[in-house]
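Q: what does this look like with 1PR bound?
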Amino acid sequence: MQVLFESSHESPGAKGLGIIPWEITKFNSADDAWRVAASGKGKSVPQIGWNGAWNAWEEDQGEMDEEDYYFVHSFAALVPDSSKKPEFAYTLSRYGSETFISSVRVGNVYGTQFHPEKSGPAGLELLRKWLAAPVSEVSSTPSKTNYRPDPPTSSGLAKRFKQGGNGLTNRVVACLDVRSNDNGDLVVTKGDQYDVREKDDSKAVRNLGKPVALSQKYYEQGADEVCFLNITSFRSSALQDQPMLEVVRAAAETVFVPLTIGGGIKDTVDPDGTARSALEVAGAYFRSGADKVSIGSEAVLAVEELLERRKNGLGPTGKTGIETISKGYGSQAVVVSIDPKRVYIDYSTLSEFKKTAHGPCVITGETSTTRTKSEEEGKAWWYQCTISGGRATRDIDVIQLAQGVEELGAGEILLNSVDRDGSGKGFDLDLINLVKNAVRIPVVSSSGAGGVGDFEEVFRETGTEAALAAGIFHRGEVGIDQVKQGLQEKEMAVRRTEVKL
Ligand code: 1PR
């Protein structure tokens, strides 16, 4: 859509097609007074998630007023002033307090800021409707007189804003940890604290189903996003060793919500000497249908390098996977998956701890809000970063990592917890609040969901943009539809999945 416009702050000096006389600018992350008051920071940029749209002109009969669509962008056709009426706007949307044009129509040229092909049934229905419209209807732009600068007061979107929301629904993400089992087949697996082998004598990789079939099931239940993490220990590049490309390709044919793929996204050299860059691996995933790639271990190493370089007055190298992929595909396509472990310290030894290599780490614990307080009596803690699926610990802490990857150009954080993984004890609210308040990019909270109440709690207590779970969905204990229903009953915004269009 944006290339139809005259220019964009994203590429100063470059001209657009100029079909639409308007300029693209960047969202202001500091605009939301309520969030600034809560955390000292404004809304997250990029905007990632499901937001509503309403028809900009009464003549279009408000047909899109109730649907939610998937957005992922930092730059937008902002409408700073309701007296400046964009005739070409088909729909408007609002993120925080900023109104922007979410789709345009000029004659038979249509453009959408959201991704209809990733917007579930609402997006597919919209594409079908536009393509099926008679030529006479789409070959001219009807005259528009009755401008609607605000969402209609009766709409679900207006209600969300009234409740203090920023427009986005609470996103529920299904995560599929995928690896090869002992027969060499890619299966969905899940353990606890990252141990995915059966506890009996067989020690086999736990097999919870086939990745494509499960992703389809979660899509039908209303998942807002599906995440595949290839947790195989790679012997060579992720493309050569257990390629997930087929899984992604097959899933993208029937799952019309965003797909994130992680595991092994880094520079490697195959045993035959072929060099594969992180950018090349990510590109192969994007071409197969992935919307975002998730980087784990490599991100920790990249931030360690950045911190070392800083000591010598140097900045980023520009060569890490995070930097090359976000430069090539945009920061919104780069997720960093963080696997922190909680490390306890007795209060009595805190001053000694601060003199160690971990000294600069953020120490927390005096004001715990978690439900495991008895374990924490008399103790502070910090969150240590791990790599290789939680198997190796590193010196840096979760805040150094989160802020480091934001600086390198990551667009979203997938925040796991090794301690809570598979435990069903609920999300680690301390950890999530800590990270959420330290960065401006969106955070997907993960690990520990044991029931519907845990989703309500994490959205209410942390302001996280999304909550992810694996075990409870795979074991069929709770359906994604039940989570959505539970949130709705508590008046918490969720994406509509039945389409009215
Ligand atoms: O390091 O770039 O190759 O990426 C590897 C990725 O695989 C990382 O994102 C890492 O988190 C993940 N990973 C590696 N080993 C494991 C394992 O389980 N052995 N899985 C693993 C991590 C954690 C979550 C899980 C939530 C929710 N899985 O993704 O889905 O904890 O679980 P729950 O709802 O059951 O509590 P790289």
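The longest helix spans residues 297-311. The chain has two domains: 2-162, 171-489.
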